[in-house]
């Protein structure tokens, strides 16, 4: 069986990278889905120090920071 090879244009790779970068941010509900818990648990973790930022009135989470915090803090989700 032979492998399939093709070239992906740089513009497409850049667009994919930009979209992935934007997707690292999540609002409370999306963060809960990412972690596999309910919104109350996300709020509880936030009160315990899980990093988040306010953008206007919205609380958003950098999922990479969330992952790192959970690992450092040894928290069970």
Keywords:
alpha+beta; 3 strands; Arc Repressor Mutant, subunit A; 4 helices; 55% helix; 77 residues
Write down the Rg.
17 Å
- CATH architecture call of the domain at 24-73: Orthogonal Bundle
How many helices in DSSP terms?
Answer: 4
What's the arrangement of strands in the largest beta sheet?
A: 1-3-2
* Major sheet summary line: 3 strands, antiparallel
| Approximate helicity band | 40-55%
What gap, in angstroms, lies between the N and C termini?
43 Å
Kindly report the CATH topology of the domain at 24-73: Arc Repressor Mutant, subunit A
CATH class of the domain at 24-73: Mainly Alpha
Listing every helix as H and every strand as E from the N terminus to the C terminus, the arrangement reads HEHHEEH
Arithmetic mean of pLDDT: 90
Q: What structural class results from the helix and strand content?
A: alpha+beta
User: In what range is the share of β-strand residues?
Assistant: 5-15%
Shape: elongated
Which segments are poorly predicted (pLDDT under 50) over 5 or more consecutive residues? Answer: none
CATH homologous superfamily of the domain at 24-73, by name? Winged helix-like DNA-binding domain superfamily/Winged helix DNA-binding domain
Number of strands: 3
